[in-house]
Design a protein that fits this description.
The chain is built from 15 helices and ten strands. With 384 residues, the protein is of the alpha/beta class. It folds into two domains: 3-277, Aldolase class I (TIM Barrel), CATH 3.20.20.70; 298-382, no CATH class. Helix 1 (25-38) packs antiparallel against helix 11. The longest helix is centred in the first third of the chain and has 16 residues, at 115-130. The N and C termini lie far apart (61 Å). The structure holds 3-methyl-2-oxobutanoic acid and zinc ion (ZN). Zinc ion binds at residues 14, 169, 171, 202, 204, 234. The site of 3-methyl-2-oxobutanoic acid (KIV) has 9 residues, from strand 6.
Length: 384
Amino acid sequence: MTKQIQFFDTTLRDGEQTIGVNFNIDEKVKIAKQLEKFGVDVIEAGFPVASKGDFEAVSAVSRAVKSTRVTGLARAKKGDIDACVKATKDATHKQIHVFIATSPIHRESKLHMTREQVIQSIFDSVSYAHQFFDIVEFSPEDATRTEPDFLVQSIQTAIDAGATVINIPDTVGYTNPAEFAQLFQNLRTNIPRFDEVTFSVHCHDDLGMAVANSLASIENGATRIEGTINGIGERAGNAALEEVAAAMYVRKDYYNAESNINLSETKKTSDMISNFSNMPVPHNKAVVGDNAFSHESGIHQDGMLKNPQTYEILTPEVVGAHKTTLPLGKLSGSHAVMAKLQKMGYEVDKDTMKIIFPKFKAVADHTNIVSENDLEYIMQEVNV
Ligand code: KIV
Ligand code: ZN
């Protein structure tokens, strides 16, 4: 059966935890509206107790979006939960996201709490939050470095207290896809109501595995993916939601999963985040990088001209990006140069290319990309 996957966007919360990124309220509202067009199911608009600005941003986003669910983040503390209640009061659809760390390193070195105290705190905070929200999402922070038995106990406690969404954060991007599969197997075996709960994952990219881990989780029982646009976030960032969505689309044969994501809004959403965060998207970034649909070498350009499917598994139109380009450089072949000249209006054939192509190569050897102007100049020179 086809799985329905929810997308939870935390660009405005975890994404803003990127060093140097600070969206103003106006930008946050614009981003939230664009995320709504992109089709995400939940927007994590901020951490209301953290600052007056965050509180106001969550309130403004709650008023601005209509079809997308809005959440605020709260530690397992009454004051944090109260701030979320107030900040999301005008949201048409809302939920809350409560978290506490469960791994031994966080319990002992950061929280100074015993296992029993953490369990009590989960129960108290989730039951308190459940009085105000129908949907309570609980995250055991650093879940992937938590002892498997204690992870089960923490999650079971949250479910007993009223949580209907359990998010598994790979807080430090430590786990690999095979381990994510094992983690889900353990939860499926030991959580009796596994199928009644929405399981979510929140993967960080410290070892470059955030997207792969998110996709592995879809295969193993997760039906909600958390991440950010362009993968921005703490340290190496979060799972890039546009990459997860594109992988689900291209590999539908494998994941057999659908979502509400409107892929044609991908590039626009990515550009907006890049502008407001002042973080240029790397040229070679999957799906939204400038080079994602550019083909440089002669063999690849020849293949593309014969059948674009030789080297493109996703077309730029699908993600709302600019057209495929075949930039001409020193690795380009005569076939691609001839096609370009014909497009520019020149009547060239295989014989005239024997004169033109050596001139092209001479120019290409001294420049990165041979421009249309360069080609005009070559054509004047050869005079064919
Ligand atoms: O990375 C993390 O663990 C988080 C939690 C608050 C979900 O961002
Ligand atoms: Zn995170």
